[in-house]
From TrEMBL:
Gene3D superfamilies: 2,3-Dihydroxybiphenyl 1,2-Dioxygenase, domain 1 (3.10.180.10). InterPro entries: Glyas_Bleomycin-R_OHBP_Dase (IPR029068), VOC_core (IPR037523). It comes from the Bacteria. This is VOC family protein. Residues 4-122 form the VOC domain. SUPFAM superfamilies: Glyoxalase/Bleomycin resistance protein/Dihydroxybiphenyl dioxygenase.
Length: 139
């Protein structure tokens, strides 16, 4: 069996509101409560994001979802329908633009607790880099 990420905990100020918002944007199911003190978002058959109530400070995290073109269109439409500001880069000013520099489309937004969410249609993290390919050929 290959190793797969099963679940991750997302610290937030209001676990139910944050879980409900992400589930809406991704168009996936969620529950107000699950195992333990969490509000789970069922991203797919193999990944659950467990939103946990955090009263103390916590680091801002970055979560990225690779989606189909149709799913991407739906996510962007739901972001716009909720009036959520979005941008074409992970950090920086809100430009209400979609990034197309990596052979697909990418959008970033923050949820109320500061976490950075990303949806993309082509994984730039999985694309081979030309320099890496050249060094392999040289060896």
């Amino acid at each position: 069996m290959s190793i797969q990420l099963d679940h991750a905990i997302v610290p937030v100020r209001d676990r139910k509101a944050a879980a409900e918002l992400l589930a809406y944007l991704l168009d996936v199911p969620w529950a107000e409560s699950g195992t333990g003190p969490f509000s789970p978002v069922y991203v797919n058959d193999g990944l659950t994001l467990d939103f946990d109530q955090a009263d103390d400070s916590y680091p801002v995290q970055h979560y990225c979802f690779r989606v189909s073109d149709e799913e991407f269109d739906g996510i962007v439409a739901r972001i716009k329908a909720r009036g959520i500001e979005y941008r074409s880069t992970p950090h920086g000013s809100v430009d209400m633009e979609i990034n197309t520099q990596h052979g697909g489309r990418i959008v970033y937004w923050n949820e109320p607790d500061g976490h950075v969410w990303e949806a993309l249609t082509v994984s730039y993290a999985r694309q081979p880099r030309e320099e890496h390919n050249q060094s392999l050929k040289a060896n």
